[in-house]
Write a structure and sequence with these properties.
By secondary structure, the protein is α/β, with parallel strands linked by helices. The chain is built from 5 helices and 9 strands; from the N terminus they run βββααβαβαββββα. It has a single domain, classed as Glutaredoxin (3-Layer(aba) Sandwich).
Length: 152
């Protein structure tokens, strides 16, 4: 997906098996953030920053939705442990990460593996992608500020 593309309405199933659709929040911008793995330090820092600034994001007209390829049971633990107020899509079939182009080869300590690139898509109320905060840009500890900067 690129800036100007239309995001799909049906995004996937959350940790409770509920279908998450973009149209569930008419008039809101969606901050659809893809992250590598539940219960890891960077992903926890990012999720907690969004949690701590959630009301400010809502006040600015955003709905936050997280996506990872972890199973729903892992998302439940992650949400409960960190009191996350927003839904987490369990993209276990990799449909959404592949559709948005955030699944690919990564490397750590010389080991190559497939994984999710930490990326946030700002989706306008009409479904158009207006901004992409890419893997090299995302700052996990101040991510809400990055999203809110889009609103200005």
């Amino acid at each position: 997906m690129n800036i100007g593309d239309k995001a799909p309405d049906i995004l996937g199933l959350d940790e409770n098996g509920r279908e998450i659709k973009r149209s569930d929040w008419p008039g809101s911008r969606i901050a659809l953030y893809f992250y590598p793995k539940d219960l890891t330090s960077g992903c926890t820092a990012q999720a907690c920053n969004l949690r701590d600034n959630y009301q400010q994001l809502l006040d600015a007209g955003y709905q936050v939705i997280g996506v990872s390829v972890d199973p729903a049971s892992q998302h439940i633990k992650f949400r409960e442990k960190n009191s996350l107020p927003f839904p987490l899509i369990a993209d276990t079939d990799h449909k959404l990460v592949e559709q948005f182009g955030v699944w690919g080869e990564k490397s750590m300590c010389g080991r190559k593996y497939m994984g999710t690139f930490r990326t946030t898509f700002i989706i306008e109320p009409d479904g158009t992608i207006s901004r992409i905060i890419g893997p090299k840009e995302v700052k996990t500890k101040t991510h809400a500020e990055q999203i809110l900067a889009t609103a200005k």
